[in-house]
UniProtKB/TrEMBL annotation, chains A, B:
Catalytic activity, reaction form: (1S,2R)-1-C-(indol-3-yl)glycerol 3-phosphate + L-serine = D-glyceraldehyde 3-phosphate + L-tryptophan + H2O
Protein name, per record: Tryptophan synthase beta chain
Keywords noted in UniProt: Amino-acid biosynthesis, Aromatic amino acid biosynthesis, Lyase, Pyridoxal phosphate, Tryptophan biosynthesis
Pfam families membership: PALP
Family per similarity comment: Belongs to the TrpB family.
Cofactor(s) in the UniProt record: pyridoxal 5'-phosphate
Signal sequence, start to end: none
Lineage, highest ranks first: Bacteria, Bacillati, Bacillota, Clostridia, Eubacteriales
């Protein structure tokens, strides 16, 4: 196929939908260090995890099986919204005048608006079959909360969502859509949990953080026997579920006889980046291909580029397992940026280990350049991207511009993890010149939060 | 293929995208009566239409060619977002307990959120190649305005959108998204036009109407030589462009060896209904198949079920061509229902003629039952539907429930013409019990507006 005859949209036939998830733990040279119990500081036991997770997900968390079958009941729900289209970004290429060929996998066509539904559906299912009636969770941008609300409704379960306060305020319609699916939505920190009350006592005006919201959701789940907790990113089983993105993307690239030189995803807790990247990374492990992988984070929350590889708490209150990961410190409070999904202080242990081992690169981009990229993308490709996903767009444009300078015809693939229909407030602010550069006090806040990690003596 | 093994999503391969539009004028037994000039009350001339439309669209308006080639430049843009998926609504069927098999064509995956982009793209293109620099239009729900903003941006043109005031107020984010695409957005009636100033002088507190907004946009276009007007529904060339929906849907039904017994679409100006219905209606004309076609309107704006088949103005100010159609009267002001796209007083002349000749049935549904249907659909099929499209869902559910009573395994196909991501205010009101039944003063308003048609002596 001639490279200029590749269709705008590359659609995977239904018969080609992946039937198994890909588990990077089977192939990575160094497995991440084990989770530690926040109480004992010793390796966490399956029993301890069982307080908030179902057995089947704990198994998925720890297994090194290469492929895990997707249950029939999950496939039936996946078929509601998968496969997702891959686009050749002809219009963006033209606007940039780049010789690079840019592709994006668009996860925003699904009803929750982002890739998060890929993991919400199996998490709801595996909890349901083990008798759990209600799931609690946190949400930042609102995308995970929307996805879990939809997924719990699919399996006739209840759902309680602790929503980071700044997102709750910036995105009122996100709250509404979760309520449409029957979820209870609580701005975090809240007075509904012991943890929340503690945070509010110390910082009554806080914007909230994913760390805080996780702590509240975990406390709620741990204190009710019919209730479990569900996390939308970070953990191995979430990354496992998200592999459907990359597995489809590989087949779609094959359909047009392409292979990416560069694979890009934005990076909050790591799930959408890992989802698209790891199935391609397998080819690196196998010595077949060697793409460059770039995890793109927000300058305001630069865990990979400015954090440390360390054991740290996954939540601000120290209730979740202690994890070996890149972290800015579990007490880090990022400024109120519009990419709520990228405000997490830590990162996926899998992604962290692979970054530490040199398989993955990282980049941090600023909020203003991100919105510039988002607007250019919207005006050329006619899709309104989520601010989170726009970090990936921003980096893709940078790479394409490098190709313009060097004349290289690189193949760039990024994950457009969600749409921005619920982010018009942020776009409004950008269009009216209210989003600037620079993050005052960032270095000091990182130094403070990292000091607290050291004090743990882990 | 066994009927219970049909996939959830039926995806048309890219190679099967329609390359031509289908023109129902080639096959309908009685062509609609000609448009009349609002000035002379005589048959409108191509020259008069040329004041606000390009030659190529006027040709499409009047031709009886059966198939019209889709230009390469339009196909390139279509490929950004077409084909659209057809879904088998297994989850909805289960919730209803119906033996009917329900399918829906989902036009909300495209970046503007509705089917409107199917006509916005060719309209922008045909204007562009005739040297037009700017398009004006009206928008009700905001979907057409969004689509035209995107399409004009694609072809590097300017765009001015007169937005019905009630929609402007209920949907602030719709305004933002049009502005992202560089459009100027003006709440209508406005003080920017002579017509608008006149309406405001008489009714300073009006909610506005599509008729008013059309009048303003037409005046703006007619008074600038580099500017044309673009209409999102009603006219023949719009209906022509929308035939891609039904042409794709026919192929998708063939893929799973099905044919609809009932085809349903909501009906504002007729474009999405006609888009899905007319390619199937061709089989009726050919004597091959005989589906039942149901155009579903809002009880608050019942032009087919309570209007008259008559010559009437297309806009409230009498500037647009006079059209033979079902109408409530060009001065009809509907109450502020949340389906802004269904508030037009008249209807497509093609659809009107076919309804008059008995090929199409009509139904009117109430706002409360529509939101009930929308919520059930969202909770089962996991897509948040636009309030307009939910009228089609509501009727599809009624038909499926009839099948439950009779035991008939009918095949029901409806057009889910758009998503409801920008309609959360309406959903919020519904969830908090603020949307009720009944439309006070409707009968009186219809009587008043129809009296004004009679006074025209057309």
């Amino acid at each position: 196929m001639k490279k200029n005859q590749i269709p705008h949209q590359i659609i995977l036939p239904a018969s080609e939908l992946p039937k198994q998830w890909y588990n990077v733990r089977a192939d990575m040279p160094n497995l991440p260090a084990p989770y530690l119990s926040p109480r004992t500081h010793k390796e966490v036991t399956a029993e301890e995890l069982g307080a908030i997770f179902p057995k089947s997900l704990i198994e998925q968390e720890l297994t090194t099986e290469r492929y895990i079958d997707i249950p029939k009941e999950v496939m039936e729900k996946y078929e509601l919204f998968r496969s997702t289209p891959m686009h050749r970004a002809y219009e963006l290429e033209k606007a940039l005048g780049t010789p690079a060929r840019i592709y994006y996998k668009y996860e925003g066509t699904n009803p929750s608006g982002s890739h998060k539904l890929n993991s919400a559906v199996p998490q709801a299912y595996f909890n349901k079959i083990e008798g759990i009636k209600r799931l609690t969770t946190e949400t930042g941008a609102g995308q995970w909360g929307t996805a879990l609300s939809m997924a719990t409704k699919m399996f006739d379960m209840e759902c309680t969502v602790y929503m980071v306060k700044v997102s709750y305020q910036q995105k009122p319609y996100r709250r509404s859509i979760m309520q449409m699916y029957g979820a209870g939505v609580i701005p975090s920190p809240s007075d509904q949990t012991q943890v929340g009350r503690g945070i509010l006592a110390k910082m009554p005006d806080t914007n909230g953080s994913l760390g805080d919201a996780i702590a509240e959701a975990v406390e709620d789940a741990a204190s009710h026997s019919d209730t479990n907790y569900a996390l939308g990113s970070v953990l191995n089983h979430v990354i496992l579920h998200q592999s459907v993105i990359g597995l489809e993307a590989k087949k779609q690239m094959e359909m047009v006889d392409e292979y990416p030189d560069i694979v890009i995803g934005c990076n909050g807790g790591g799930s959408n980046f890992s989802g698209i990247a790891f199935p391609f990374l397998k080819d690196t492990f196998d010595g077949k291909e060697h793409a460059k992988f770039i995890a793109v984070e927000a300058e305001a929350c630069p865990k990979l580029t400015k954090g440390v590889f360390t054991y740290d708490y996954g939540d601000s209150a120290g209730m979740a397992p202690i994890t070996m990961m890149y972290s800015l410190g579990h007490s880090f409070h990022p400024s109120g940026i519009h990419a709520g999904g990228l405000r997490y202080h830590g990162d996926s242990p899998l992604l962290s280990q692979l970054y530490h081992d040199g398989f993955i690169e990282a980049a941090a981009v600023g909020q203003k350049e991100v919105f510039e990229a988002a607007l250019l993308f919207a005006q050329t490709e006619a899709i309104v991207p989520a601010p989170e996903s726009s970090h990936a767009i921003c980096q893709a444009i940078k790479e394409a511009n490098k190709c313009k300078e060097s004349g290289e015809e690189k193949v760039i693939l990024f994950n457009l993890s969600g749409n921005g229909y619920f982010d018009m407030t942020a776009y409004d602010m950008y269009l009216s010149g209210k989003i600037g550069d620079g993050i005052p006090g960032l270095e000091e806040e990182i130094a403070r939060a990292q000091g607290e990690i050291k004090d743990l003596g882990l």
